[in-house]
Specification:
This protein has 860 residues and is of the alpha+beta class. It is 22% helix and 33% strand. The protein has a six-stranded antiparallel beta sheet. The longest helix has 25 residues, at 605-629. It is globular. The structure holds beta-D-mannopyranose (BMA). The site of beta-D-mannopyranose has 12 residues, from loops. Beta-D-mannopyranose (BMA) binds at residues 199-201, 396, 422-423, 460-461, 526, 550, 640, 651.
Length: 860
């Protein structure tokens, strides 16, 4: 299969359609400050080459090379090692723009880069105007001295981030650890997205480029640098706010600042001020009457207010500048209260303790500019649809684009925001610390108005690595001093100065140095003995953390995704191409080892892919349900990881193309606001109900013992009153009484929480692992039927219990609304097909495939 046919064919329908969601249009305002986008006319070349070729800004050198057909698709088969030269080369980017006489007359003309990746010298008409060395910073420089009338040339020279650092590393005399760097360990020295150097789920593509928008800004008297809405008091009748407006002025003058809600005349403040040259800070008080609150998903709606600051300076009554901020009104507290077990770690929003349900977010692409608003939306809506209310932006990627946080605000997804440090030790010299201070300041200021952001966290796993990965024993003690300078000095200082209302936490996991980083008595925990140490899934149930911020298990993507990066001849888990897309050295071995504990040997390649997903989903379910059952002792479950940055075997629940793996469907069930979780404790099955809702619920709890043909062998039901924000067992059923001597391998328990005649939650409970069940392969009947509102749907029925039923329509653009579910005999289940393009019933019938867990294994 030719390369373009495979990857592009899957990519286009799955992603480009999503990209059709246009970015929110910016309202054009008439201010004297003007801005000229520098996003067109770019070309690039390898330093020293003669020919310039078309480039895209924002973009990266890898995607530009790809667009020019100078390299093959980096994600296809085993192309990754062949493209390592790109990161070891220097690259030049160039564009021209016209400067009008009017522009030249402006008192200030500044060149603004929202992001340069990474070591770059910027030349304007061959005059060096900027030296950049931190991918995460925004750069603003005076362009006037270099500007001329007519055509101007802007050139950016990117030096290889690897070569740049090597001499510095040699001079150091010791190596800073960087466990994931797949090559020379240069990443700790460079403020660049760590995952691009390789990770245990990610390829090594050390890219460069103008990765965020660039523009010229021209102004005369003054411009608004920032608008920060601070919430002083949030009452039922009124919210008291302060608008902190920062103005940069050309000289001393009188000015007027107005801050208002354009949709509500009652919310307004105005202040005449005296500007001094340089930075000025003003505070205007605002009152929002009858405020509506912002709530995390599941607890209420996500009301957002837009406030606009306008600045009139210079005496001619012209509007100099304006800036808007969209905010949500809510309080957030990280409650750490001493108790018998240690100390709680609970996010309290608007006074309500919120159990955080979610996953860890990694960059959604190796090349950040490819993550369109549409792809963000798909992933974040997938999170919301799986009943998640929190994502952790993990510290090995980059601070996400604005669109990410805007969508989280709208969807009610709380964001745990790491600073970008992961699994390494870092330099502690002044230059490095100042670079980080600037980076942190830029990003905290950029993100602090988002109600979704609930915490700033110093780093990923650096504290635990120092203490538990042998670093403390083998590395100079100075590195720990440097650690403290950064994560207990610079970063909390920036948060205190720029965003004092949000909690700061030094590391994940951590106990804030009060106890061991991995202590389960306080702070957050990453638990990895399931997976790395081969511990069985039920070891999750032995953990009693206060907040679980990482735990996970790998699976393979489905066959359609695998087809995008392989040839049929690669279809062996151990083939070189499949191994190139499995970055964990023991990944395949671990998956197999765990699989054979619970399942027979899968009969073929595709069955292995499918069974790996069921295995992952079943395993994480054990952990997630336990973590919810032990609430409020534990108040968070963020599994590792939601998404992927390329098509790969990984811990993700949604693959690179946005396809839901089994785990994502399972997550929707185990994160449901009402969870029914049967659990065997000392020979007794206890029926727990975990209720994340704030209301009390009268219901009936019903448990039926069934055989695999669906015959009811016994039934118990009790009326219950489900308490709000609680986990509690409402019914205990001794196994011996339940089974009455029956073979535990031939029956199962079907539990339901009945509310108003329907099942508000249900669960199938087995007394034995799948491979021991005496369950002959079921015969599932599938009919294409009209679904709700004319949608195409499939109605399924079965003669015997069918487990992890997977319905697919290969080649059709769309997905089934539910999947990987247990189908009970004697019941019909209709599942809608959410088509992204119109599809006829006949077509769906032709493509329809149904597999069940039994089908994955040869003889049953
Ligand atoms: C966690 C993460 C990542 C890693 C994952 C899987 O520790 O923080 O560094 O990818 O485990 O090993």
């Amino acid at each position: 299969m030719p390369k373009t046919n495979s990857l592009a064919r899957v990519l286009l329908p799955a992603l480009l359609l999503l990209a059709a969601h246009a970015a929110r249009a910016q309202t054009q305002v008439k201010t004297t400050k003007t801005s000229v986008d520098l996003d067109s006319g770019w070309t690039f070349r390898k330093a020293g080459d003669a020919e310039w070729r078309k480039a895209t800004v924002p973009g990266s050198v890898h995607t530009d090379l790809l667009a020019n057909r100078l390299i093959e698709d980096p994600f296809y088969r085993d192309n990754e090692p062949k493209l390592q030269w790109i990161g070891k080369s220097d690259w030049e980017y160039r564009t021209t723009f016209d400067a009008t006489p009017a522009l030249l007359k402006r008192r200030h003309v500044e060149l603004v880069f929202e992001g340069l990746d990474t070591y770059a010298t910027v030349y304007l008409n061959d005059r060096a105007v900027l030296e950049a060395d931190n991918m995460f910073r925004t750069w603003r420089v005076d362009a006037k001295p270099a500007l001329k009338a007519g055509p101007n040339t802007l050139r950016v020279v990117f030096r290889s981030p690897i070569n740049e650092v090597l001499p510095r590393m040699k001079a150091l005399g010791y190596e800073l650890p960087a466990s994931n760097d797949q090559g020379e360990k240069t990443s700790p020295h460079t403020r660049k997205a760590p995952y691009q150097y390789g990770w245990d789920w990610g390829p090594r593509f050390v890219t460069c480029g103008v990765w965020k928008p660039a523009r010229l800004e021209a102004w005369d008297e003054a411009r608004i640098d920032s608008l920060h809405i601070v919430q002083n008091q949030l009452g039922e009748k009124a919210a008291q706010l302060t608008a902190e407006v920062e103005v940069v002025a050309d000289g001393a003058s009188d000015a007027l600042i107005v801050v208002e809600d354009p949709t509500d005349k009652r919310v307004a403040a105005r202040q005449t001020v005296k500007l001094s040259p340089g930075a000025n800070r003003f505070a205007l008080k605002l009152t929002v009457p009858n405020p509506q609150l912002w709530w995390p998903a599941g607890l209420g709606s996500q009301k957002l207010y837009t406030l606009r600051a306008r600045l009139t300076a210079g005496g001619d009554n012209k509007l100099s500048d304006e800036l808007s901020a969209r905010v949500g009104l809510r309080t957030v507290e990280l409650r750490q209260q001493a108790d018998a077990a240690g100390k709680s770690f609970t996010f309290v929003v608007n006074g309500v303790p919120v159990f955080a349900k979610g996953a860890n977010w990694i960059p959604a692409d190796s090349f950040p500019e490819r993550v369109t608003v549409g792809r963000y939306r798909h992933l974040l809506e997938s999170a919301r649809d799986a009943n998640m209310n929190m994502l952790r932006v993990w510290g090995g990627g980059y601070y996400e684009m604005d669109a990410f946080y805007e969508l989280c605000d709208e969807l009610g997804i709380m964001v745990w925001q790491d600073f970008m440090f992961a699994c390494s030790m870092y330099p502690g010299d002044e230059k490095f610390l100042e670079s980080v201070r600037a980076e942190a300041t830029d990003n905290v200021r950029r993100l602090r108005n988002h109600p979704s952001v609930v915490i700033w966290v110093g780093n990923n796993e650096v504290e635990t690595a120092w203490h538990h990965w042998g670093w403390k024993q083998n590395l100079p003690a100075k590195l720990w001093d440097d650690y403290k300078k950064l994560f207990h000095g610079v970063l909390p200082e920036v948060v205190a100065a720029e965003d004092p209302a949000r909690p700061y936490w030094p590391s994940s996991p951590s106990s804030n140095l009060e106890e061991d980083s991995d202590s389960q008595r306080m702070g957050d925990v990453h638990y990895w003995e399931v997976w790395h140490a081969s511990k069985p899934f039920d070891y999750y149930e032995r953990q009693r953390p206060r907040f679980m911020s990482e735990y996970g298990f790998q699976s393979f993507p489905g066959i359609e995704t695998v087809n995008a990066y392989t040839l049929p001849s690669d279809h062996d888990i151990q083939s070189p191409v499949m191994l190139a897309h499995q970055k964990h050295p023991r990944g395949n071995q671990l998956i197999r080892e765990y699989m054979l504990r619970d399942f027979p040997e899968p009969k073929d390649f595709e069955s292995f892919l499918y069974a790996s997903q069921v295995l992952q989903a079943e395993g994480i379910r054990v952990g997630a349900e336990h973590l919810r059952r032990i609430m409020p002792h534990n108040m968070g479950s963020l599994y590792w990881q939601l998404d992927d940055c390329w098509p790969v075997a990984s811990w993700s629940s949604v693959d690179y193309f946005g396809r839901w793996k089994a785990l994502q469907y399972y997550a929707r069930r185990f994160y449901a606001p009402l969870l029914l979780s049967p659990h065997e404790e000392g020979g007794v099955v206890k029926l727990y109900v975990v209720n994340d809702r704030t209301d009390r619920l009268p219901a009936t709890l019903r448990a039926r013992l069934l055989d695999f043909e669906g015959r009811t062998l016994s039934e118990t039901s009790v009326p219950v009153e489900v308490a709000p924000l609680t986990s509690k067992s409402y019914l205990s059923l001794p196994v011996s009484v339940l089974l009455e001597g029956r073979d535990p391998a031939g029956v199962f328990l079907h539990c339901e929480l009945m509310v108003g005649g329907g099942a508000a939650a249900s669960h199938t409970y087995f007394f034995r692992p799948f491979k021991e069940l005496k369950l002959p392969a079921p015969n599932v009947n599938a009919e294409v039927t009209p679904g709700w509102h004319g949608a195409t749907a499939v109605t399924l029925s079965t003669d015997r219990l069918a487990r992890a039923v997977y319905v697919s329509a290969e080649g059709l653009d769309g997905s089934f609304e539910d999947n990987f579910f247990d189908l009970l005999p004697g019941r019909k289940l209709t599942v809608a097909f959410k088509a992204r393009r119109p599809v006829t019933n006949a077509e769906l019938r032709r493509r329809l495939r149904v597999r069940t867990l039994s089908d994955a294994f040869s003889k049953r």
